[in-house]
Amino acid sequence: MVFSGMVFLFAFLPAVLVLNFALPRRFGNAVLFAVSLFFYAWGEPKYILLMLASIGAAYVTGLFADKDKYGAKKARIAAVIAVVWNIGLLLYFKYSDFAVVNLNNVFHSKIPLPGLALPIGISFYSFQSLSYVIDVYRGEVKPQKNFITLGTYVALFPQLVAGPIVRYIDIERQLNTDRRFSAQKFASGAKRFAVGLAKKALLANNIYALFNEIGAAPQSDLSVAAAWLGAIAYTFQIYFDFSGYSDMAIGIGKMLGFDFLENFDYPYISDSITDFWRRWHISLSSWFRDYVYIPLGGNRRGRARQCLNIAIVWALTGFWHGANWNFLLWGVYFGAVLMIEKFLLMGVLKKLPAVIRHVYALLLIIIGWGIFAYEDTAELKANFANMFGFGGLPLWSAQTGLWVRQYLPLMVILIIGSTPLMHKAGRKLNKMSPVVYQNVLEPMSMLFMLIMSTAYLASSAFNPFLYFRF
Asked: How far is CA 310 from the centre of its chain?
């Protein structure tokens, strides 16, 4: 079940909201835990026991990770068990086939593939469970003694499938005693959900169609410009797809009384790759910083060790996205660029005009998504050969011109939507005439987006979601 599906929009979400507000507050976590398990079982019924086992492992290891009660030695053992369990799950379900394929290639063996289906959301809920136990071990939070409350945290359906990665420490009070509800907060959540749904359904899905068209086009229709156009289309698609889903998750959270941290901050206005990774998938970047980079020593042990730590973090970041060499290459690529910026380029970049810095960042971002988009190595090589003029293609073609004319209006909307311009315009209108804006313009625009999004989704079978597979 995905947020942009008819079942979720017109059955599941309304039913959850009714239950959440109709039942007494003391049943709030139990209701959310039950509906979250139902949400997960809808798409992955065979892995619901795995989800419960993960919650159970987090619950038990979290209790014993309390150094104040069990001492440093036992707490350390509990934390290690949590690490082994959660990382072990990821390695087994996500990387078994990859490991076997590469072992067979290297040693010319014929080990059969395990052929395991990837449990939906395992990359997210494993990291959440792990961060909870580590935070208990560090003494940053108290262990949660109520299994249902902890289960609600791990399985909470708004962020279960595709994040953002929510740390227990950030919503501990909301889970226990301080989940606040108000008409204003609910309206804010509904608005955020409507914006996210429109980004996903109206923008991401439509620009992804261009990426698919270019990918499926005969060689005679392609050109160097078309290869770049495809990469740009994917760059927009992955942002509006993923940020739209994060917006919907944050919006649903608000409607249910939670305040999740932001996951995107207009990453395509960045003026460096360092700036980009402060703005893109913030919850993942901060997770690797707090639980990998800093524990490895961060920047406290000299430049050589810092470079090694950055390399480790970005190799892991890439590999976290999927069991394929292109994801590892994508992580290594961004890690290398970040190190070059940190140690060589940042001083130079700061002296350049803002527009030059922005173009520099966008070019490197588009190249990065060009790596990310192709899991097939042959397709990856062919696409980059085409982009950089080594594929024997002309610079331009008649079909390229047709694609540009067809998708130019959408591209303009995507460019504007990638910036804070609309947000700033809304704030300005609100300042000029708050009554009209808050009671007429904003509600009508949200209603329009909901109607247009649901109409599109109802009439189209094309509704992919990229991060569903991670």
From this structure: 21
